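Schema walkthrough. Field components (list of strings):
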Amino acid sequence: MTGPHDVGGRPDAAGPVDRSEHVFADWETRVDAIQRLCGGARFWRLDEFRRTIESMSPEDYVSYSYYQRWVKAQATLLVEKGLLSADEIAERLERLRGEMGGAE
Amino acid sequence: MTLPRHDGPFRFQDGARVRVGTGDPPGHIRTPMYLRGKVGEVVRNCGAYRNPERLAFGGDGLPLLPLYVVSFRQRDLWPDYAGPASDTLTADLYEHWLVPADVAGE
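Field assembly_structure (string):
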Protein backbone atom coordinates (compact mmCIF):
# COMPACT_ATOMS: atom_id res chain seq x y z
CA MET A 1 0.00 0.00 0.00
CA THR A 2 1.36 3.41 -0.89
CA GLY A 3 2.05 5.31 2.33
CA PRO A 4 1.32 9.03 2.61
CA HIS A 5 5.08 9.70 2.39
CA ASP A 6 5.53 7.82 -0.90
CA VAL A 7 4.69 10.70 -3.21
CA GLY A 8 7.21 10.20 -6.03
CA GLY A 9 5.44 10.58 -9.36
CA ARG A 10 2.19 11.68 -7.70
CA PRO A 11 1.62 15.35 -8.52
CA ASP A 12 -1.78 15.01 -6.83
CA ALA A 13 -0.01 14.28 -3.52
CA ALA A 14 3.12 16.43 -3.71
CA GLY A 15 2.91 20.13 -4.37
CA PRO A 16 5.75 22.57 -4.99
CA VAL A 17 8.72 22.40 -2.62
CA ASP A 18 8.78 25.16 0.01
CA ARG A 19 12.39 26.35 -0.07
CA SER A 20 12.13 28.96 2.66
CA GLU A 21 14.34 28.58 5.76
CA HIS A 22 12.60 27.15 8.80
CA VAL A 23 12.70 29.09 12.07
CA PHE A 24 12.60 26.63 14.96
CA ALA A 25 10.00 27.09 17.68
CA ASP A 26 11.08 26.17 21.22
CA TRP A 27 8.88 23.08 21.27
CA GLU A 28 10.45 21.86 18.03
CA THR A 29 13.97 21.92 19.48
CA ARG A 30 12.62 19.94 22.47
CA VAL A 31 11.10 17.37 20.13
CA ASP A 32 14.45 17.17 18.38
CA ALA A 33 16.16 16.63 21.75
CA ILE A 34 13.76 13.79 22.66
CA GLN A 35 14.59 12.21 19.32
CA ARG A 36 18.34 12.42 19.93
CA LEU A 37 17.98 10.98 23.42
CA CYS A 38 15.68 8.10 22.53
CA GLY A 39 17.32 7.34 19.19
CA GLY A 40 20.83 7.72 20.59
CA ALA A 41 20.03 5.33 23.42
CA ARG A 42 18.53 2.88 20.89
CA PHE A 43 15.28 3.13 22.80
CA TRP A 44 13.83 3.00 19.33
CA ARG A 45 15.45 2.63 15.97
CA LEU A 46 15.18 5.06 13.11
CA ASP A 47 13.27 2.40 11.16
CA GLU A 48 10.69 2.11 13.93
CA PHE A 49 10.35 5.88 13.99
CA ARG A 50 9.88 5.99 10.23
CA ARG A 51 7.37 3.15 10.36
CA THR A 52 5.35 5.04 12.95
CA ILE A 53 5.33 8.25 10.90
CA GLU A 54 4.62 6.56 7.58
CA SER A 55 1.74 4.48 8.94
CA MET A 56 -0.22 7.58 9.96
CA SER A 57 -3.45 8.12 8.10
CA PRO A 58 -2.94 10.27 4.98
CA GLU A 59 -5.24 12.89 6.54
CA ASP A 60 -3.08 13.17 9.67
CA TYR A 61 0.16 13.00 7.72
CA VAL A 62 -0.82 15.86 5.44
CA SER A 63 -2.31 18.05 8.15
CA TYR A 64 0.65 17.76 10.57
CA SER A 65 3.81 19.82 10.26
CA TYR A 66 7.18 18.08 10.15
CA TYR A 67 7.77 18.24 13.91
CA GLN A 68 4.12 17.54 14.70
CA ARG A 69 4.65 14.23 12.90
CA TRP A 70 7.75 13.68 15.00
CA VAL A 71 6.07 14.33 18.33
CA LYS A 72 3.06 12.19 17.41
CA ALA A 73 5.39 9.35 16.44
CA GLN A 74 7.40 9.78 19.65
CA ALA A 75 4.22 9.58 21.75
CA THR A 76 3.13 6.47 19.84
CA LEU A 77 6.50 4.78 20.38
CA LEU A 78 6.74 5.76 24.06
CA VAL A 79 3.39 4.05 24.60
CA GLU A 80 4.27 1.12 22.33
CA LYS A 81 7.49 0.53 24.29
CA GLY A 82 5.66 0.78 27.61
CA LEU A 83 7.58 3.77 29.01
CA LEU A 84 4.44 5.92 29.23
CA SER A 85 0.76 5.13 29.01
CA ALA A 86 -1.65 7.03 26.77
CA ASP A 87 -3.45 8.11 29.96
CA GLU A 88 -0.26 9.54 31.46
CA ILE A 89 0.38 11.57 28.32
CA ALA A 90 -3.24 12.81 28.26
CA GLU A 91 -3.11 13.79 31.94
CA ARG A 92 0.15 15.66 31.51
CA LEU A 93 -1.21 17.50 28.47
CA GLU A 94 -4.29 18.46 30.45
CA ARG A 95 -2.15 19.80 33.31
CA LEU A 96 0.07 21.79 30.92
CA ARG A 97 -3.01 23.31 29.30
CA GLY A 98 -4.13 24.45 32.73
CA GLU A 99 -0.71 25.92 33.56
CA MET A 100 -0.70 27.78 30.28
CA GLY A 101 -4.08 29.31 31.06
CA GLY A 102 -5.89 27.34 28.41
CA ALA A 103 -3.76 28.70 25.59
CA GLU A 104 -2.95 26.29 22.80
CA MET B 1 28.18 -0.26 15.90
CA THR B 2 29.97 -3.17 14.27
CA LEU B 3 27.87 -5.08 11.79
CA PRO B 4 28.10 -8.84 11.70
CA ARG B 5 29.84 -10.00 8.54
CA HIS B 6 27.79 -10.80 5.48
CA ASP B 7 29.05 -14.20 4.37
CA GLY B 8 26.44 -14.82 1.73
CA PRO B 9 27.03 -14.11 -1.96
CA PHE B 10 26.06 -10.89 -3.67
CA ARG B 11 23.58 -11.87 -6.35
CA PHE B 12 24.19 -8.91 -8.66
CA GLN B 13 27.39 -7.48 -10.14
CA ASP B 14 27.87 -3.88 -11.25
CA GLY B 15 26.22 -3.45 -14.64
CA ALA B 16 23.59 -6.13 -14.01
CA ARG B 17 20.15 -5.34 -15.41
CA VAL B 18 17.57 -5.79 -12.69
CA ARG B 19 13.82 -5.53 -12.31
CA VAL B 20 12.26 -4.18 -9.13
CA GLY B 21 9.62 -6.40 -7.55
CA THR B 22 6.00 -5.55 -8.28
CA GLY B 23 4.72 -6.84 -4.96
CA ASP B 24 2.84 -4.64 -2.51
CA PRO B 25 3.36 -6.39 0.84
CA PRO B 26 2.07 -4.89 4.06
CA GLY B 27 4.57 -3.49 6.55
CA HIS B 28 7.38 -0.97 6.40
CA ILE B 29 8.72 -0.91 2.83
CA ARG B 30 11.60 1.33 1.71
CA THR B 31 11.20 0.63 -2.03
CA PRO B 32 9.29 3.56 -3.58
CA MET B 33 6.04 2.65 -5.31
CA TYR B 34 7.06 4.43 -8.51
CA LEU B 35 9.95 1.98 -9.00
CA ARG B 36 7.95 -1.24 -8.63
CA GLY B 37 8.30 -3.37 -11.76
CA LYS B 38 10.82 -0.98 -13.40
CA VAL B 39 14.10 -2.13 -14.97
CA GLY B 40 17.39 -0.49 -14.08
CA GLU B 41 21.11 -1.15 -13.86
CA VAL B 42 23.18 -1.91 -10.77
CA VAL B 43 25.82 0.81 -10.52
CA ARG B 44 27.26 0.11 -7.07
CA ASN B 45 27.34 -2.56 -4.40
CA CYS B 46 26.96 -0.77 -1.05
CA GLY B 47 27.61 -3.81 1.15
CA ALA B 48 25.10 -5.56 3.39
CA TYR B 49 22.92 -4.05 6.11
CA ARG B 50 20.26 -4.97 8.62
CA ASN B 51 16.82 -5.34 7.03
CA PRO B 52 14.83 -2.14 7.70
CA GLU B 53 11.56 -3.99 7.09
CA ARG B 54 12.29 -6.02 10.25
CA LEU B 55 14.07 -3.31 12.24
CA ALA B 56 10.92 -1.23 11.86
CA PHE B 57 9.02 -3.68 14.08
CA GLY B 58 11.67 -4.12 16.74
CA GLY B 59 13.48 -7.09 15.17
CA ASP B 60 17.26 -7.40 14.88
CA GLY B 61 17.15 -7.04 11.07
CA LEU B 62 19.28 -10.12 10.52
CA PRO B 63 20.34 -11.75 8.27
CA LEU B 64 22.08 -8.84 6.60
CA LEU B 65 20.81 -7.89 3.18
CA PRO B 66 22.93 -6.68 0.25
CA LEU B 67 22.11 -3.12 -0.78
CA TYR B 68 22.70 -1.75 -4.27
CA VAL B 69 22.57 1.62 -5.98
CA VAL B 70 20.38 1.06 -9.03
CA SER B 71 20.18 3.55 -11.89
CA PHE B 72 16.98 4.01 -13.90
CA ARG B 73 16.37 5.99 -17.08
CA GLN B 74 13.97 8.80 -16.29
CA ARG B 75 12.11 8.00 -19.50
CA ASP B 76 11.47 4.48 -18.20
CA LEU B 77 9.87 5.87 -15.05
CA TRP B 78 7.65 8.71 -16.24
CA PRO B 79 5.47 8.29 -19.34
CA ASP B 80 5.54 12.01 -20.17
CA TYR B 81 9.21 12.64 -19.37
CA ALA B 82 10.40 15.42 -21.70
CA GLY B 83 14.04 15.71 -20.59
CA PRO B 84 17.11 14.25 -22.31
CA ALA B 85 17.18 10.48 -22.80
CA SER B 86 20.43 10.36 -20.83
CA ASP B 87 18.74 11.58 -17.61
CA THR B 88 18.79 9.01 -14.83
CA LEU B 89 17.50 8.52 -11.31
CA THR B 90 19.32 6.38 -8.75
CA ALA B 91 17.86 4.61 -5.74
CA ASP B 92 19.23 2.42 -2.94
CA LEU B 93 17.45 -0.94 -3.14
CA TYR B 94 17.81 -4.10 -1.08
CA GLU B 95 18.56 -7.34 -2.87
CA HIS B 96 15.30 -9.09 -1.99
CA TRP B 97 13.46 -6.45 -4.02
CA LEU B 98 15.44 -7.23 -7.21
CA VAL B 99 15.31 -9.99 -9.83
CA PRO B 100 17.33 -10.30 -13.05
CA ALA B 101 15.70 -8.09 -15.70
CA ASP B 102 15.10 -11.03 -18.03
CA VAL B 103 12.84 -12.59 -15.42
CA ALA B 104 9.25 -11.38 -15.78
CA GLY B 105 7.79 -9.36 -12.92
CA GLU B 106 6.16 -11.29 -10.09
